[in-house]
Amino acid sequence: MRYQDKDKLDVQYRRLNIYRNKKSRLIYYFKQSKKAYKIDQSDIRFIQLYYYRLQFSLLIMLLSFVASQLAWVGLLTGLLVLGIFEFWFRYVYLKKLEVAQGFQPYDKSGYIQSTMAEPKKVIHIKMFAFGSIAVFSTISAFLGEYSPAYFYGMLAIGAFGFVQFILLIYVKWLQKKEGI
Length: 180
What we know:
alpha+beta; 7 helices
């Protein structure tokens, strides 16, 4: 793997709070407890699963709300899934990892920084996809004769697409500003 590819990969890992120590070993830094854990390449998918726990919980909440047409069932199911994610990660998964003593994260990267490391072509494709999702789901929500649950679900999808589209425009602006 070329050095630049490794650096881009490291930026994407830092979004998940995964760093490399001085020996190039992967380290996961758990912000809430301010502890660092030694991990392997195979552990990254579990950390990604935890990183996206809120999105999974919201999706489950929305699906159960649509299926049952009862708001409390959707809310309860979403909170239950979120609780299971939290319990599993904090009290089962992290307990089996070895603690990395004295590690401090050296750089903080988030969604914006990892997206800036992506090729321009990928960013353009994402902009088109999220822009289309925002426009078509919003139009569909108002033109379709949906029940309130579906109507608000379509609006939520449209809002998500719009927010992602705006973030990608911001990334393009930053890239242009930095000459990338």
